[in-house]
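STRUCTURE REQUEST FORM
Protein name: LacI family DNA-binding transcriptional regulator
Source organism: Amnibacterium soli
Requested output: structure tokens
Priority: standard
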Amino acid sequence: MQGRATISDVAAAAGVSVATVSKAVNGRYGVGSETAARVLRIASELGYASSLGASSMRSSRTGVVGVFIAAFEPFSSEVLKGIGVALGDSGNDVLAYSSLTGNEHDGWERRSLSRLGGTLDGAILVAPTVVDLPGTIPLVAIDPHTGPAGLATVDSDGYGGARLAMERLIGLGHRRIGFVSGRHDLRSALLREAGYRSALEEAGIPFDADLVRAGNYELKLSREAANQLLDLPVRPTAIFAANDLSALAVVQVAQSRGLAVPRDLSVVGFDDVPEAARADPPLTTVRQPMQQLGNEAVAMLTALMGQQELRRPHVTLATRLVERHTTAAPAPRRG
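Status: completed
Returned output:
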């Protein structure tokens, strides 16, 4: 394409009408979030990015709040529900945007904000990899990788939640408890592992590195971790997983081996995504208030957009244990 890209060029490349492009780049009603994100991406790729700030040049506000998400998975989807509800009566539109097509890369937030920042009044970053971001618009981070920093942040008590899970298993009589860990570049995952270790120490149970396997919050790796734990000469009687996806993978692997959950193996997850309650058997898990994370982030962002000083720039929400049907006392050892 020669010369400067036009709105017609963007419409043709995106397979939409010129009117749709106009609505998308100016943050107006009538365009679905996925279509808007595609149009904005194509506009930037074609060099039409200068038009993305058109509405902000016409007025001081665009009426659009951005939500930047690395991947649309159960946790971020629940958070997004909370954001949507909290913004429901605010008069703002929500633009949920993910710039990634594959694995998460450090610094994706910078690229996304650079691309779309001129169209937004403020933005919420879900599990950002970096928090040293340009302060051109108000920003709030949910569950940032590095924990509290210069940005306003909201997260949940991963350490305390992990202790709740372990205290339940230890209270049932389990002493050989495996752990399927999360991503070691995430502060929240490290806190869950710290809670696992702390509960063992408090109960006088020696830490055994063979009982910790990396699941990385991924289905394939979590299945591998479960198989490794269940292949041990003396397998664990219980497994605590750092998120529900990993815990459900553990249950599936155990059942595929002919083990009954919880008779032969107790399992506890973390998050309480909707799939946890629908599983067979329903999963005992630690509930972090995912939708409330979204609610709190909106409250903080609204205050920042109104140029108010935050009373608490870093908020940590409580977690609680939800007991269902994947935990029981350990079965007596045969022989």
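Reviewer notes: The two ends are 76 Å apart (CA to CA). The first helix runs from residue 7 to 14.
Form closed.
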